[in-house]
Amino acid sequence: MRRWFGPKIIGVGIGPRSWEGWLATLVFAGGGVVLARWLHPLLPKTPVWAFELPWLALFLLVVALTYGRDADD
pTM of the full predicted structure? Predict the structure, then answer.
């Protein structure tokens, strides 16, 4: 099974390793913008981080569940 995220080849950290990883990254980045831009004005007394923190936690969960080295590495 090809993993969506894995260690970077150059530098420190992790990054997308497949098209699914890139798609997940784009969806979560776009969703964060949507939450901040359109949902926050509906609830103006709620701080932006209250929307973004659970969204970021969900993304990190997806990364953790799909992280690893490929079988052919």
Answer: 0.73
Helical H segments across the chain, by residue range: 19-34, 49-65
Contact 55, 32 (CB under 8 A): yes
What residue segments make up the domains of the chain, in order of their start?
1-10+21-73
Paired residues of 65 in beta bridges? none
**8 Å CB contact between 55 and 35:** yes
The structure tokens listed for 73 are 């590495």
CB of 54 within 8 A of CB of 39? no
Residues of the chain with pLDDT under 50: 73
Tokens of 42: 């509906």
Q: Is 25 helix (H, G, I), strand (E, B) or coil?
A: helix
Ramachandran region, residue 32 (left: φ > 0; alpha: ψ -120 to 50; beta: rest): alpha
In this prediction, residue 26 carries a pLDDT of: 94
